[in-house]
Amino acid sequence: MKMIRALSTHGGNVREHAEIRGISIESLLDFSANINPLGIPESLKLAICQQLHLAERYPDSEYKALRKTLAEYHQCLDRHIVVGNGATELIFAVTEAIKPKKAMLLIPGFAEYRRALQKQQCEIVDYQLSEDNFFQPDRALIKHISADLDCLFICSPNNPTGQRIDHDLLNEIVDICRQRQIYLIIDEAFIDFAGERYSLISKITANPYLIILRSMTKFFAIPGLRLGYLLNTDDNLLHRLRLEQQPWTINSFAELAGRVVLYDYGYIDATHRWLRQEQAYLFQKLSQFSTLIVYPPAANYIFFKCQITDFDLQDALLEHHILIRSCGNYPGLNNNYYRVAIKKRSDNKALLIALHRIMMNHSLERK
Ligand SMILES: Cc1ncc(COP(=O)(O)O)c(C=O)c1O
After folding, report:
1. Following DSSP, what letter does each residue of 201-242 receive, concatenated?
2. Phi, psi for residue 228 in degrees, rounded to 5
3. Superfamily designation of domain 14-40+265-360
4. Is 274 a residue whose pLDDT tops 70?
5. Does the reported pTM lie above 0.85?
6. 56-263 has which fold?
7. Index of the ligand 1 atom closest to the CA of residue 109
8. In testing the pocket of ligand 1, which one of 32, 92, 110 has its CB within 8 Å of the most ligand atoms?
9. Main-chain phi, psi angles of 22, to 5 degrees
10. Is the distance from the beta carbon of residue 228 to the nearest atom of ligand 1 less than 6 Å?
């Protein structure tokens, strides 16, 4: 029987996969969305429960309190922050404000940059990251950053490869883009997992061409609330960005989340402790499969290549009620590539057990 394929472009579409297989959503273990398995912080749950009345009035359309909290946290000026309904809204707002004619994307990369650029009818130059170089950008990229580009998107750690771009190289790219007046949009949606010390937020001062994108979705496990923000110091661009946005784009509870969670140090520490353990555990265990090439992760997900030909590992794992992200629809990749979220130990073990069962038919594991 031919299996119906899911149509979604992103991970996390548990409903669609469950429907296709005729199973309940609850019985599917989701490794396809990279969300912190510690779940929504208790501090936020409590704050929302205590402040349900916030829904009874409009949020502040300028989000002054939220921007002040973010500015204090990042030690920058609140007027340099624009908040959005997830980083996704801001990706579209940025391209709308810049109206680039020519842009460069590193592939494989997050799909929404391309959709946002296409909406502007922008010419897109793809820079293929090399498998031989573990999909890491290297200095060869620099000579492709030509002055006729209007913008360049870089995601670090990159989705789906999980690689963090070398800090010195990234700084060099920042300088080059500034000299050549190219907007450099650095997507730091996963940087809080890698470590705030890798963020380039401190570099925004006096560099109007640097735009940093952040998402609260992954680290604080609130994909359903929708909250992201960007940082930039070009008053003119910031003004245009705000003009692009509809009023009250962030709901009251997302706004509340932004004011509460950044100071939940208990949750933040617990997340780093969990990640340190489970990242090493899952990477090491996956690397033992001789059929897989596993890329060392810098964030809360692991990217790998399955070397078995004509084999659909996503499909095979769905038989075990486990959903992983097939990366075949990323430009620059093919159906042999996959991404899994790092979850709690019991879930990670369930994934490994299912993989053992599947791989038993294909090869011996490495000792
Ligand atoms: C690299 C990257 N940037 C941005 C986003 C969008 O995040 P948000 O949920 O804040 O819109 C995602 C979501 O998957 C992502 O993977």
Report:
1. GGG-TT-TTEEEEEESTTTTT-TTT--EEEE---HHHHHHHH
2. -145, 170
3. Aspartate Aminotransferase, domain 1 (3.90.1150.10)
4. yes
5. yes
6. Aspartate Aminotransferase; domain 2 (3.40.640)
7. 1
8. 110
9. 70, 35
10. yes
Query: Residue 1 above 50 pLDDT?
Result: no
pLDDT digits (tens, 9 = 90+) for 143-156: 999 999 999 999 99
Q: 103 phi and psi, to 5 degrees?
A: -135, 155
Domains 14-40+265-360 and 56-263 share a fold: no
Going by CA atoms, what residue is nearest to atom 7 of ligand 1? 87
358 pocket-lining for ligand 1 (C-beta < 6 Å):
no
Cβ of 59 below 6 Å from ligand 1: no
| C-beta of 187 in contact with ligand 1 (< 6 A) | yes
Residue 358 Cα to ligand 1 midpoint, Å, equals: 31
Residue 155 CA: nearest ligand 1 atom is 1
First to last CA, the chain: 36
> Which residue's alpha carbon is at the smallest distance from atom 12 of ligand 1?
189
CA atoms of 159 and 188, how far apart (whole Å): 10
Which atom of ligand 1 sits closest to the CA of residue 11? 14
The domain spans of the chain are 14-40+265-360, 56-263
Give residue 14's pLDDT: 83
- The residues, ordered by sequence, that sit 6+ positions from 149 with a Cβ below 8 Å of its Cβ are 100, 102, 103, 104, 125, 180, 182
83, 161, 218, 300, best to mutate for ligand 1 pocket (most atoms within 8 Å of CB): 218
Residue 41 backbone phi and psi in degrees, to 5: -60, 140
**Which tokens go with 333?**
């990749």
Q: Is 215 in the pocket of ligand 1 (CB under 6 A)?
A: yes
Q: How far apart are CA 297 and CA 161, in angstroms?
A: 8
228-231 and 81-84 beta bridge pairing: antiparallel
